[in-house]
Amino acid sequence: MLALRSASAPFPLQGDFHSGNTRVAFSGTVSDPLNVGGIDLRLKFAGDSLRDLYDLTGVLLPETPSFSTDGRLRADFTQKNRMRFNYQNFNGRIGDSDIHGSLTYTTGKPRPKLSGDMESKQLRLADLGPLIGVDSGKGTKKSASRQAGDRPQPAGKVLPADRFETDKWQVMDADVRFKGRRIEHGGTLPISDLSTHVILEDGDLRLQPVRFGLANGSIAGSVHLQGDKKPLQGEANLQARRLKLKALMPNVEMMQKTLGEMNGDVQLRGSGNSVAALLGNSNGNLKLLMNDGLISRNLMEILGLNVGNYLIGQIFGDEEVRVNCAAANIDVTNGVARPQIFAFDTENALINVTGTASFASEQLDLTIDPESKGFRVITLRSPLYVRAPLNRRRRG
């Protein structure tokens, strides 16, 4: 009893709580126990989803795949209207991703705030999806409901229609820096050395900056999603530098012969609560420059591009053709992309592409006009016209 009355002597504390499959275990001390001045605990969490921690902690977190984490929790309760929780040097997992770092959660007005630093050696990108309100894929209740028949993606559409749950973005603010060494995203191209600063304030989300390695090159820029607007307002400014063509297509043998690179810039802004909606009324510009590539019908077939397979066959036949360079400068207005310049300079022909591609209707309406070089005869004497939905770009 004397220890309980002492404001200076720490009082030992231990507990192990379960709620369904969620477990919270801790051991440590509490200072000024009669007034609960603060705590210093070794703390372990585990469960099916971070969202399930709400019943035990009162902190609203997103739905995620199964998780576990172990770290040191220090908290100061001396200011009842602004309590501070420091979860230090934690190690854990969310789904198939490892996570490490230190985070601080501060209560108070106008909103609680989460700040700190996190890193991952092997990150599965789908495990982070719920943090911005989109489906995580494997292992969540939302994912299971989709497998049971809840499929929001419209039939025949390619652009993702998953809605951002922006109402959750205004529950708390965030200022978190994140690093990931290797990123798995469901494709054949590994993403490496991800680095971003996530700033969330009253529903306004910024990734500024965001950087990562791709195809032995880099992608860098910023993303701004104003979730406090109805509908959401989004803007992306990204730069791709020195992406190696052979690394972009690691499973295509013919591309391993080339030393070509690709560079590009993307500046887009739009409104809507999904990627499809944002692109469907977007405005901005796309630039692309490529050098020293290869192209053939076989390549188009490997990539599953039916339209490309047909076009290359019509222009070049079955030959493998070297591309000296390719350049594109494409304006996007109200969701419709229209090239100012879209040209390929090959060893046999100069190919110009004009027309439009609509993100809203996902329709292509393009004219491909090849101009033969020198005495080399190209069988095609008139332009080719491509009028097809985006989802027909793939075989079968």
Characterise this structure:
The chain has 396 residues and is mostly beta strands. Among the domains are: 1-110, no CATH class; 282-396, no CATH class. It is 12% helix and 51% strand. The protein is built from eight helices and 19 strands. The protein has a 19-stranded mixed sheet. A hairpin with a 6-residue loop joins strand 2 (22-31) and strand 3. Helix 7 (297-303) runs antiparallel to helix 8. The longest helix has 11 residues, at 306-316. The protein is elongated. Residues 143-151 and 300-304 have low confidence and may be disordered.
> Element order, helices and strands?
HEEEHEEEEHHEEEEEHEHEHHEEEEE
| Unreliable runs | 143-151, 300-304
Question: What is the general shape?
Answer: elongated
Structural class: mainly beta
Report the β-strand fraction as a percent range: over 45%
| Number of separate helices | 8
Overall pLDDT level? 82
Query: Biggest sheet, in brief?
Result: 19 strands, mixed
The rounded distance between the terminal residues' Cα atoms is: 77 Å
Q: Please provide the count of β strands.
A: 19
Helix content: 10-25%
Radius of gyration: 26 Å
What is this entry, summarized?
With 396 residues, the protein is mainly beta. It is built from eight helices and 19 strands.
Tags for this model:
396 residues; mainly beta; 19-stranded mixed sheet; 19 strands; 12% helix; elongated
Explain the layout of strands and helices:
Elements: H1 2-5, E1 11-19, E2 22-31, E3 38-47, H2 54-57, E4 67-76, E5 84-94, E6 97-106, E7 113-124, H3 125-128, H4 141-147, E8 173-184, E9 191-201, E10 204-214, E11 217-226, E12 233-244, H5 245-248, E13 261-271, H6 275-280, E14 283-295, H7 297-303, H8 306-316, E15 321-333, E16 336-346, E17 349-358, E18 363-372, E19 384-389
Parallel strand pairs: 7-8
Antiparallel strand pairs: 1-2, 2-3, 3-4, 4-5, 5-6, 6-7, 8-9, 9-10, 10-11, 11-12, 12-13, 13-14, 14-15, 15-16, 16-17, 17-18, 18-19
